[in-house]
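User: Hello, can you help with two protein structures?

Assistant: Certainly.
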Amino acid sequence: MNSTYAAVAVIVVAVVTLAIGFFGLRFSRTTSDFYVASRSVSPLWNGSAIGGEYLSAASYLGIAGLILTYGADMLWFSVGWTAGYLLLLAFVAAPLRRSGAYTLPDFTQIRVPSPYARALASVLVVVIGWLYLMPQFQGAGLVLHTVTGSPPWVGAVLVAVVVVVNVISGGMRSITFVQAFQYWLKLTALGVPLIFLLHAWTRDGRPSPADVGVGEGWLSPLSYQGTGIAMYATYSLMIALFLGTMGLPHVVVRFYTNPDGDAARRTTLLVLGLLGLFYLMPAMYGLIGRVYASDLAGTGHSDIVVLALPGRMIGGSLGDVLGALLTAGAFAAFLSTSSGLTMSIAGVVAQGPVGRWVAALRPAALSGPATEGVPPLRVAAVLGASVPLLLALVSDRIAVASSVGFAFAVAASTFCPLLVLGIWWRRLTAPGAIAGMLAGGLGSGAAVVATIVRGSDEGWLAILLARPAAWSVSLAFVVMIVVSLATARRVPPNVSRVMVRLHAPERVRLSR
């Protein structure tokens, strides 16, 4: 790939992203604008923005790399990341919007009033956000290094700086415009080169993976490590992806920006269509890559197969241009997802000690009631992005989609039980919520750490640690229910009012 073309593509994406972010600043005047865009984002805009932030580097690069290496089993990532919105649509979207919360800790406080439950939810938001942000920064460094030869830290720092500038300039208003634009950029960046690649594949006589010596194991699902282990691994992955979606802080926060619960449902339905359209393409890149770039499989660089194919299959100036377009889409993926994650982390951190510290240092005369929450949000955004950036720069790189899968497992094991039981079960108590989140969070978190430390050992223990969702989500639900029943006297006294608030349509006049 021509490094000049790639560098120009990255610069253009960064400049356009900043320009759109500063455009959003024109509409950001109050704390509500910065945190939830004054709850006025239409389903079309919000659906596009959710598609923009949800389709991260794991979707844009990681899925193709996993399919290239492991084959049909990895198609579950595409299916799971899309189908998770069905559960979100059915159980969470509208009630969560009606709660009136700004963040997941806000919802926790509304449902089970407890400073300890809120503090634990805040810690989990930050942990999940950092676990998701770190591979975005690492992936940005890898991509820029691959296409331009720059040091890996350059891409990571570039993404972090652009994201922080956008968040502190206009908050949720700015990143809504940015993410909506970047969804359509990513769709175009994958779709246009794919047309040329399919044409080149046809021109070459349609060789298939079987024609180039790919074994049956790559083409058939559930074919590795024995039937029992493979079956568990697949179902545990499905649980993590299906249930983890509703627990991702940067996804959930976008539903607070809808005008009402009905708009939240329409947004979710639209997202299903947008994601389904997008996920048709990474699988094709993985399949074509097995034919033309099989040497990348298992090398630790399989994530770059999407970027490598135009040069290998087409070449020349056209190959360089298509490669630059794919690079632009990859950087859009890093920027849009990192923006949502940074915003969700900043929203939580700004409501904690950082917010109180900034408020104490800032004279009251410099900010009125309508904007008093903005300075803490800006400071929190800088802090929230700095920690995962440092971790990304000093830690070894692991596969982007795999590390994002860890974040899904932790989210599914903590916030999914809290949201489902908090919305649909009136007997949930604060001790139950705390115990369940601790059990699921510590269980899945310990499994993630053990997997990273142990490496890729084979056998049941390795797969139980690498794919913990099947047991950690079950553990969280059971502990949350059992402890709540054991502390039945601690059911919040206002639970009836809260449940009506969550489930009554907006057209029913209530004091919300």
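That covers the first. Now for the second protein you mentioned:
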Amino acid sequence: MSDIFDITETLDVKGASCPMPVVKTKSAVDGLGEGAILEVVATDPGSMSDIDGWAAGTDGVDLLDQVEDGDEFKHYIQKTA
């Protein structure tokens, strides 16, 4: 759990590799209401650039932060529309 963000839901995609972290993130975001924050926990280092690129090219989402925490990569995405 993040002390920085009020997380609405956590998506565990540990063990999944490209493109599944992005595919599952998109699906999870689609099910959230406006203003909700999704925490995505991944183990694929490529998820850092993949989720960043997806968020940059997707209307209605903001990538708030990405954190490398040992072998895990945490992404914080807010649905804005």
